[in-house]
């Protein structure tokens, strides 16, 4: 995470309602969320051996 101080938007009573992030940090968080969603989608897939993956790539390149 960033070393910058975190800024919040607060309610009139002082309760934190939102956070202000630098755009780069926000984009990194979105990328991390996307990566985690891919991992979750593939959780139940069986592993593929290196040899099988090489063959798949070779077959795909020939198409």
What would your notes on this structure say?
By secondary structure, the protein is α+β, with helices and mostly antiparallel strands. A two-stranded antiparallel sheet has the order 1-2. Strand 1 and strand 2 form a beta hairpin.
Short key terms for the protein model shown above:
63 residues, 14% strand, two-stranded antiparallel ribbon, alpha+beta, 2 strands, elongated, 2 helices
Shape: elongated
The percentage helix is 40-55%
The total tally of domains equals 1
* Rg for CA atoms: 21 Å
Backbone structural class = alpha+beta
Report low-confidence residues grouped into runs of 5 or more. none
The H/E string reads EEHH
Percentage of β-strand residues? 5-15%
Question: What's a quick, concise take on this entry?
Answer:
The chain is of the alpha+beta class. It has two helices and two strands.
